[in-house]
Write a structure and sequence with these properties.
Number of strands: 6
Structural class: mainly alpha
Length: about 525
């Protein structure tokens, strides 16, 4: 049952109490929308965002009938295509879909929290979401993570209504939204996993309860609908990607304790950086421990005292947070598939748990938890503004254009160290030089591959100007051999660093690129990194 209720008598005082939360929620939603559109186009599209745009340009039939983007289902790209048709192709427009759905998640979380805990906890959780550094970041990214979280929260809200009122519409609506979310991103599969685990843990009813059989029957029916709706996606997109022997090529890595620590730091906007002093790292680590371990401890203790029944709010929040973490963590221990952003769908569970803990505590303990949260939110906001920098493909394209124009170059060429890195480069590049992606040479290079590198360089070194663009998202130039051999053939070169990308220029346009003269020592120095 919700923790705060109001009398049914329609008095002016009660009307005021009802209006105030809705007004506060409206203000929070407007604030969330403003924050998510603030400086939304301040940074370049990075590789994955440019890929989202490229897939949204494909014909809908091609997206639906084949696994066009192994690792991602097609529905988000169809949504983005419809959004682009109405709002355009700029960075702000492409990211606007996530920004709007991110702001709309605030009232959805309020509705979910009100069903579980009542208005006070719901409003506090909505406020925490509106200001969440991690949610702000992904709400300004043209990717699937915010849309799938929004759909998952909607499904969870209908799930709580189904548990409370046991109506067919709520059961089927929740199952349908969970299925739809699975066509947006595979991390949505963690939502029905948490719902199933919660049902097993929470809905133990007395034998003399006449509604027990009805709830079980409708829950099973909803599960069957979910499976029926999701099965085509599993067959068409999931199985060929993850289950086939030659399917998905894992690149993310295995789950490690260091990966978990980075996830906690990222949850609050990365308030501590790798180069931060040890005392800062220790302080932030202590704060992170307080705001994660303490609410979990309080929630686990309180959940044990909740009576078995149709709805156990604290257990619900714990399951929403922990079941996705345990399921995905176990998978990432077996396969190198760890990406902390895939657990973004579990964020509502954490915020509900923290909001409940803040209002449950009293005195100094509440002050410690609230102060720790405030410090992490403030530090994360400042850090994310300064340090969460996307790869600067806009700057790279402009630099190549300007160098070409200053040198009066018309016969040059741009070599890009991975073919797929042409997606963000071509989004910004307005010049006329041809672009070529480097072949995917095997590593380590054998004699045959080394000869292929030499032949490739000889074919492309004849231009009066050659640019080599190397992105941190992947380099097809093992050992920087292409840049090294172009340097040897042209005699001199220039190198310029951008966020996440470095550019080499050889020939007439080299000095116009700016940066620094290229030497072998600089060439084989540290690769570009994202701050």
């Amino acid at each position: 049952m919700p923790m705060d209720t109001a009398p049914d008598t329609p008095t002016p005082a009660r009307n005021a109490r009802l209006i105030t939360p809705w007004l506060a929620l409206l203000l929070l939603t407007v604030l969330a929308l403003a924050l998510r559109f603030w400086r939304i186009a301040g940074q370049s599209l990075w590789l994955d965002e440019a890929a989202s745009r490229a897939f949204s340009l494909l014909p809908p039939g091609e997206l639906l009938r084949r696994n066009a983007d192994p690792g991602n289902p097609p529905l988000y790209y169809l949504m983005l295509a419809a959004w682009r048709a109405g709002f355009g192709d700029s960075e702000a427009a492409l990211r606007g879909l996530s920004a709007v759905l991110g702001a709309l998640t605030v009232p959805v979380l309020y509705a979910l929290g009100r069903e579980l805990f009542g208005r006070r906890v719901a409003l506090l959780a909505a406020g925490l979401l509106a200001l969440s550094p991690i949610h702000l970041y992904y709400s300004q990214e043209a990717r699937q993570y915010v849309p799938v979280l929004w759909l998952g929260a909607l499904a969870a809200w209908l799930f709580t209504r189904a548990l409370r009122a046991n109506r067919w519409g709520d059961w089927l609506g929740s199952a349908s939204l969970m299925a739809v979310a699975c066509y947006v991103h595979y991390s949505a599969l963690l939502i029905p996993a948490f719902a199933a685990a919660y049902l097993l843990l929470a809905c133990r009813r007395r034998a003399d309860d006449p509604s027990a059989g009805v709830v079980g029957t409708r829950a099973l029916a909803a599960g069957a609908v979910l499976l029926l709706l999701a099965l085509p996606g599993i067959w068409l997109y999931l199985a060929p990607t993850f289950l086939a022997a030659d399917g998905y090529q894992y690149w993310q890595g295995y789950l490690t304790p260091a990966g978990l620590a980075k996830m906690l730091n990222k949850l609050f906007g990365r308030p501590v950086a790798a180069e931060s002093p040890r005392i800062v790292k220790a302080g932030v680590g202590l704060l992170l421990g307080v705001v994660t371990a303490y609410p979990l401890y309080l929630g686990a203790r309180a959940a044990r005292q909740e009576a078995p029944g149709a709805l156990r709010p604290i257990l619900f929040a714990l399951a929403y947070l922990l079941v996705p973490l345990l399921c995905y963590g176990a998978f990432a221990r077996l396969r190198p598939a760890w990406q902390d952003r895939y657990l973004f769908v579990a964020l509502p569970g954490y915020l509900l748990l923290v909001a409940w803990a803040l209002l449950e505590l009293r005195g100094g303990r509440r002050l410690v938890l609230a102060g720790s949260l405030a410090l992490l939110y403030a530090g994360g906001m400042a850090s994310s503004l300064a340090g969460w920098q996307k790869d600067d493909w806009r700057g790279v394209a402009r630099a190549v254009e300007q160098a070409t124009a200053v040198a009066g170059e018309t016969q040059g060429e741009v070599l890009i160290t991975r073919p797929y890195l042409q997606l963000p480069f071509d989004y910004y590049y307005r010049g006329k030089l041809p672009r070529t992606g480097l072949p995917d040479w095997r590593r380590p290079l054998g004699d045959e591959d080394a000869a292929a590198v030499t032949a490739f360089c000889q074919r492309h070194a004849g231009h009066s100007s050659v640019f080599v663009v190397e992105g941190m998202s992947g380099s097809g130039d093992p050992g920087a051999l292409v840049a090294e051999r172009l340097l040897a053939q042209h005699g001199e070169g220039w190198m310029r660093h951008f966020t996440g990308v470095r550019v080499f220029a050889f020939g007439r346009a080299g000095p116009a690129l700016g940066g620094e003269p290229l030497t072998l020592e600089r060439l084989h120095g540290r690769r570009p990194e994202r701050p």
